[in-house]
Design a protein that fits this description.
The protein is mainly alpha-helical. Helix content is 81%, strand content 0%. The chain contains 20 helices and no strands. Helix 4 runs antiparallel to helix 5, helix 6 packs across helix 16 and helix 12 packs parallel to helix 14.
């Protein structure tokens, strides 16, 4: 086998590129939502439902994807998923009505669900446990970068050539990356920590129950679900908010939204990972849950203030800080899901986390906020609920910190 296929850096680079595309494909839609809304005569509730369609299917499909990832060749699973979602993105551009659009956004969720569980475990196996949050944080910068590209491509291409063209442009790179990822070697499960990769053959339902009985994982899931409601809801509606309250056109709204998110969230993602690993090295066993909880709490006043800002520059500055504190959780929580679970079950743990965090969090956030906006007659008032939700996420995270050390010790006993 060629040497390059086994290098962690090559694996990381391709997974990085795929995850950028993952979020780009998701966020082209909100960038061109105002144009789609006009062409198909949709309400805010229907536009929000398009975001829900993707996330609901994505969350449900994650569990079988995680099961396959714990048992079979992970890079092959990822390759087929990337190809599938790229085709779904392409089909989005040829839809002719709301029902078709709803259907292809749901299909997009199936493809993207096959990516995150196996990718998280691949990176955990390729890099050491002590620097895991830092590595996951660099990988996590793909989220704001992908959101920026989604908003930017959606706004720029959609503004110049029509909203359908934006989906055509983002579909093509996925087919290339799908081929590349299948060529790479899979690192041995648990190798980076010298842990055994063996399972007891329990039934799928029993495995789910056992994973959720890990208190660190269950509290982290709940805290992240609440934060996902905020992230998903705000990210989806920000371009529309800028157009409505600050008179920005589709191109301007898409680029401004993306710039704020990529800069603020990108810095927050990297900083959160380095801070969590620094504190862990100094003896704070709960650091990878403590840092996210503190970030959630710090973001609340910035979200509330941004949504009441009278000028566009003030809104952008405040949202920059809000995005940074919110995304400080990305790397630490991804690392935490691997730290407290034995190697043979880690992809399923990630899948369960995806299922519950999206079902309880952002799957219904665009729809809920859109419906509340229709009911109140104010998108601003509807979005303000997120500043309260994120405080609840922080409280749950602080509670979960007490369980981390014990759950990590259990993993070392069982698989060491």
């Amino acid at each position: 086998m060629s040497t390059w296929r086994a290098r962690p850096g090559v694996l990381f680079s391709i997974l990085f590129a795929i995850n950028v595309l993952n979020y780009t494909d998701r966020f082209v839609l909100p960038a061109v939502a105002s144009s789609i809304k006009l062409e198909f005569s949709l309400s805010d509730t229907q536009v929000g439902l398009l975001g829900t369609a993707f996330l609901l299917v994505y969350a449900i499909a994650a569990l079988p994807a995680g099961t396959f990832a714990d048992r079979y060749r992970r890079t092959t699973l990822i390759g087929w998923g990337v190809a599938f979602w790229s085709v779904a993105t392409l089909l989005t551009g040829i839809t002719q009505n709301f029902a078709q659009l709803f259907g292809v956004r749901a299909l997009l969720g199936i493809g993207e669900a096959t990516y995150f569980p196996p990718s998280t475990t691949l990176l955990a196996d390729a890099y050491s446990q002590r620097g895991r949050a830092r590595m996951m944080s660099w990988w996590g910068t793909t989220t704001p970068l992908g959101v920026f590209l989604g908003f930017g491509i959606g706004g720029a291409v959609g503004g110049l050539f029509g909203w359908r063209s934006a989906f055509y442009v983002t579909a093509i790179p996925g087919l290339i990356l799908a081929v590349l990822i299948t060529l790479l070697r899979n690192p041995t499960r648990g190798a980076s920590e010298a842990l055994r990769n063996q399972d007891d053959g329990s039934s799928p339902l029993r495995v789910v129950v056992q994973l959720l009985s890990v208190r660190t994982l269950s509290t982290a899931i709940l805290a992240q679900a609440l934060s996902f409601f905020v992230l998903g809801g705000v990210s989806f509606w920000v371009p529309t908010y800028l157009a409505l309250y600050f008179q920005q056109n589709a191109t301007q709204a898409g680029i401004l939204s993306g710039a704020v998110i990529v800069l603020g969230a990108g810095l927050g993602t990297i900083g959160g990972g380095y801070l969590a690993d620094l504190l862990l090295g100094r003896g704070y066993a709960s650091a990878r849950l403590l840092v996210p909880a503190a970030g959630f709490l710090a973001s609340a006043p910035f979200i509330a203030a941004a949504l009441q800002a009278a000028t566009l520059p003030t809104f952008l500055i405040l949202m920059f800080f809000a995005a940074g504190f919110l995304q400080a959780s990305s790397g630490p929580l991804s690392a935490l899901s691997q730290d407290v679970i034995v190697p043979a079950r880690r992809a399923r743990a990630v899948a369960i986390s995806l299922l519950l965090t999206h079902l309880l969090g952002d799957a219904f956030a665009p729809f809920a906020i859109g419906s509340l906006s229709d009911a109140l007659g104010s998108l601003q008032q509807a979005l303000l609920i997120t500043s309260v939700t994120i405080v609840a996420a922080a409280a749950v995270g602080f509670i979960g910190c007490r369980f981390v050390a014990g759950d990590r010790e259990r993993v070392l006993r069982q698989a060491g």
